[in-house]
Design goal:
- The chain is α+β, with helices and mostly antiparallel strands and about 550 residues long.
- The protein folds into 3 domains: about 1-80, Alpha-Beta Plaits; about 105-280 and about 490-535, 3-Layer(bba) Sandwich (FAD/NAD(P)-binding domain); about 285-485, no CATH class.
- The chain has helices at about 20-25, 110-120, 135-145, 180-190, 205-225, 270-275, 295-305, 395-410, 420-425, 450-470, 520-535, and strands at about 1-10, 35-45, 55-65, 75-80, 105, 125-130, 225-230, 235-240, 245-250, 250-255, 260, 280-285, 285-295, 320, 330-335, 340-345, 355, 365-375, 415-420, 440-445, 480-485, 490, 505-510.
- A hairpin with an 8-residue loop joins strand 2 and strand 3 (about 55-65).
- The longest helix is centred in the last third of the chain and has 19 residues, at about 520-535.
- It is globular.
- The structure holds flavin-adenine dinucleotide (FAD).
- Flavin-adenine dinucleotide (FAD) binds next to helix 2, strand 16, strand 17 and helix 11.
- The site of flavin-adenine dinucleotide (FAD) has 44 residues, from helix 2, strand 16, strand 17 and helix 11.
């Protein structure tokens, strides 16, 4: 008999050897009746009513024939289905003779996963990335954060690993596509990620681990016949009769009739190129706001209460939302980075945006999260935003904020920052604490950066949201502006075959296509695009 047992309590310092005894206690059976036990999920429960924080786990069990399942346990039992299985291994189609190799553009989570799948299917994909390899990209980005020296093709958003490289590396996703998520996680583990990501309810890697994992993914793609071209930007699409027949990368031309476009949502030149080539695009809602940094000790206290500081508890995270009220829109926290750093993200000169990253230890004394306000297409109705066509109006709206953030501090990629109390009181801070996670930041008013409805909503919403969390002192918090790229402002339309309805052979995928947001959903979308490309060959 095989099943999954949920709600199994385990101490935070359990070992794998403790699992049979813990399961037997819960099942009220002899340990000998358990043939095999395997942990499949675990999350921390640190609610104060518990005498101590513990893991709530799910285990997969194989039981001896004599075992009888107690009827009172049935609600915590799940029949074994294939939901925990990974996606099927790729079918291996053959390219027709003379057919060009498939091309994947963009080596972020979506492009890497797509290229990996195509390589495993024996299709020898060519992966093109405008930035450099992750190991060569890192020193350039570190130097940017230290000095503001900006490299247009090698920055926090461009280069191998994509926007996901210098990220918090949380691997949470709302996607229900469990088999593809499993395939992605297993690929990460195969490339050096800790096995814990397969079982943790809130898996996390951190930028240092991602750097190693991305390098191994590249090696896996290359070892299976894929080719990677760095410092190579897609600059044009060659089309005939509504289909792709080739691409240009500067003065290089490449024949190609199947292209997975995984260029992320920062590559505005790519959206403009697609618009010129009549790919179907539409504007989509987005959200903008600020990044709020608070002492991690206070965040831990708000989440763990009397257990805060417990040596086995990791840096805590939070999520808060606020409904619209009194002339304020909805507001929500987003992309929380416990024990992380606020970073300046820029992918073009003259514009800056904020985000948060962390290392695997999540051991910074600060935690940060974006607090963002939804923006609807009606907000881009101003003709100035529709100058490049209404599909790109949201992108111009984001760009305007980013340019204002850049100039607010003198145009040297210094992030505008304020003490939260000053922002709430509509004042510009006289100074900032020397000890903050983003040292290249300085006081500047956010009122010249963000639209009125955003600052008004934030001022009205943040105090009650922090009160709801408890333990976080407004006086100790710093806010940074502006958070603009929480999601894509453009959707590249695709049909059931995954292709652009107006540019056959183009498979838009990942966050930039507007169907995914975050590392996991983008990687899963990239995997699906590769499967659809393979289907188009079969
Ligand atoms: C600082 C930061 C922290 C984040 N933290 C998290 C997190 O903790 N968890 C999470 O789930 N998500 C996080 N995100 C979001 C996540 O990184 C993205 O959702 C994800 O990377 C999107 O994947 P993608 O492959 O679709 O696009 P991207 O990662 O943006 O990759 C696109 C790639 O395409 C390349 N490219 C663009 N144009 C061209 C061109 N013309 N020619 C060739 N190459 C091109 C780019 O250089 C880039 O490498 C974070 C993002 C940032 C910026």
């Amino acid at each position: 008999m095989k099943f999954i047992l949920r709600q199994l309590e385990l101490p935070l310092d359990y070992n794998d050897e403790d699992l049979p005894a813990a399961a037997a206690r819960r099942l009220k059976c002899d340990v000998e009746e358990i043939i095999h036990v395997e942990l499949v999920k675990r999350s921390i429960d640190a609610r104060p009513r518990r005498p101590a924080p513990l893991f709530i786990a799910a285990v997969k069990l194989e039981m001896a024939a004599r075992f009888r399942l107690p009827s009172w346990l049935k609600k915590d039992i799940e029949e074994l289905s294939d939901e925990l299985g990974s996606a099927e291994s790729p079918v291996k189609p053959a390219l027709k003779s003379g057919d060009p190799r498939p091309v994947v553009v963009g080596a972020g989570p979506a492009g890497l996963m797509a290229a990996w799948h195509l390589a495993m299917a024996g299709l020898k994909p060519i992966l093109i990335e405008r930035g450099d390899r992750a190991d060569r990209r890192k020193p350039v980005v570190d130097n940017f954060w230290r000095t503001g020296a900006f490299a247009p093709e090698n920055n926090a958003l461009y280069g191998e690993g994509g926007a996901g490289l210098f990220s918090d590396g949380k691997l949470t996703a709302r996607s229900k596509d469990r088999p593809r998520i499993r395939t992605f996680f297993e690929t990460l583990v195969r490339c050096g990620a800790p096995r814990d990501i397969l079982i943790d309810a809130e898996p996390h890697l951190g930028s240092d681990v991602l750097l190693e994992v991305v390098a191994s993914m590249r090696q896996l793609i290359e070892a299976n016949g894929g080719e990677t071209l760095y410092n190579t930007a897609l600059t044009d699409l060659i089309c005939e009769n509504g289909a792709i027949i080739g691409i240009k990368c500067g003065d290089k031309e490449l024949s190609c009739n199947r292209l997975i476009l995984a260029t992320g949502h920062s590559a505005r030149d790519v959206y403009r190129l697609l618009q010129n080539k009549c790919a179907s695009l539409e504007s989509k809602p987005l959200a903008v706001g600020i990044r709020l940094e608070a002492p991690q000790a206070q965040i831990n206290m708000s989440q763990y209460g009397r257990f805060a500081g417990h040596p086995r508890l990791k840096a805590a995270s939070y999520r808060v939302t606020r409904r619209p009220e009194n002339n304020a829109r909805a507001c929500y926290s987003f992309c929380m980075c416990p024990g992380g750093l606020v970073i300046c993200c820029a992918s073009e000169h003259g514009a800056l945006t904020t985000n948060g990253m962390s290392y695997s230890g999540r051991d910074s004394i600060w935690g940060n999260a974006a607090f963002i306000v939804p923006v609807e297409p009606g907000d881009f109705a101003d003709p100035a935003f529709a100058a490049s066509g209404k599909e790109l109006a949201g992108m111009l709206f984001q760009e305007k904020i980013e340019k204002a953030a850049f100039t607010a501090t003198g145009g040297d990629f210094v992030v505008p920052a304020l003490m939260l109390a000053d922002f709430l009181a509509d004042k510009v801070s006289a100074s900032l604490p020397a000890n903050r996670s983003c040292p290249r930041s300085k006081p500047a008013s956010f009122d010249n950066i963000l639209p009125d409805f955003v600052t008004r909503t934030l001022r009205q919403s943040i105090p009650p949201m922090l009160r709801e969390l408890g333990s976080i002192n407004i006086a100790d918090c710093i806010v940074y502006a502006a958070e603009t790229r929480s999601s894509s402002s453009v959707r590249i339309l695709r049909d059931d075959s995954g292709q652009s309805p107006t540019l056959r052979g183009l498979f838009p995928t990942g966050e930039g296509a507007g169907y995914a947001g975050g590392i996991v959903s983008s990687a899963v979308d990239g995997l699906k695009a590769a499967e659809q490309l393979i289907e188009s060959l079969c």
